[in-house]
Amino acid sequence: MQIPFNRPYFTGNELKYIEDLFNSVQNGESDSHISGDGKYTRKVQKFMETKFGAKKSLLTTSGTSALELASYALNLKHKDEVIVPSYTFSSTVNAILIAGAKPVFADIQEETLNIDPEDIRRKLTPRTKAIYPVHYAGVSCDMKHIMEIAEENDLKVVEDAAQGVNAKYKDKYLGTIGDFGCYSFHETKNYVCGEGGALLINTDDEAITERLEIIREKGTDRSKYIRGEVDKYTWVDIGSSYLPSDVLAAFLYAQLGKMDEIQEKRMKVWNTYYEVLKPFEETGKIRLPIIPDYSEHNAHLFYIVLEDENKRNSVMKELKNKGILAVFHYIPLHSSPMGISLKNKEGDLLVTENLSKRLLRLPLYAELKNYEVKYITSVLSMLLEIPEITSQYL
Question: Which domains are delineated in the chain?
Answer without folding.
Answer: 14-257 (3.40.640.10), 259-383 (3.90.1150.10)
